[in-house]
Amino acid sequence: MEYVPRERVRPLAAILSVVSLAVVFAAAGGRIPSSTVPTAPEWVLDLIPHVNVVISVTAIGTIAIGWRAIRRGDVDRHRKSMLSSFGLFVAFLTFYLYRLVATGGPQPFPGPDAVYQFVYLPVLAIHILLAVVCIPLVYYALLLAAAYPIEELPRTGHARLGRIAASLWLISFSLGIVVYLLLHGVY
């Protein structure tokens, strides 16, 4: 059953990507005033990074389960795992952007300047770059899966793009955990 018309997969993936990235960059750039989000107690804002690291670990697990499932030919488990991964990504991003807007910007790095320059910033930059690159790849892979019956998916770029997206997604989530540890564990 076709949920997305095939000829609309690319334009829809492009539109969703542009809108999503615009929201992310607007929030990160301080273009969204904190008055646009509901006020939360300080403890809720402080809890968000810890919730997000749990979401990240869980997403790594669901991506790995989905990858393993498709290698074993279990399409139904693959679909459920990857949709769960996407839902976790949306939850992570929602919490992250909410906190970013509510607090007025990113959390400052509490460690030494040398660690900031030579460890934290490179890890953060790669994490962000991969997350940005993943957004259109994930949308496209999901929309292909929604537009084609399972038996026709091998004739599309779904598998090839899915492997790339899943790999980058895993690395991005993993680096996000490293960022979390540097901000909340080590320093």
From TrEMBL:
Pfam families: DUF420. The keyword Flavoprotein does not apply. Signal peptide: none annotated. Keywords: Membrane, Transmembrane, Transmembrane helix. It comes from the Archaea. The keyword Transmembrane helix applies. The chain crosses the membrane at residues 12-30, 50-70, 82-98, 118-143, 164-183. This is DUF420 domain-containing protein. The lineage of its organism: Archaea, Methanobacteriati, Methanobacteriota, Stenosarchaea group, Halobacteria.
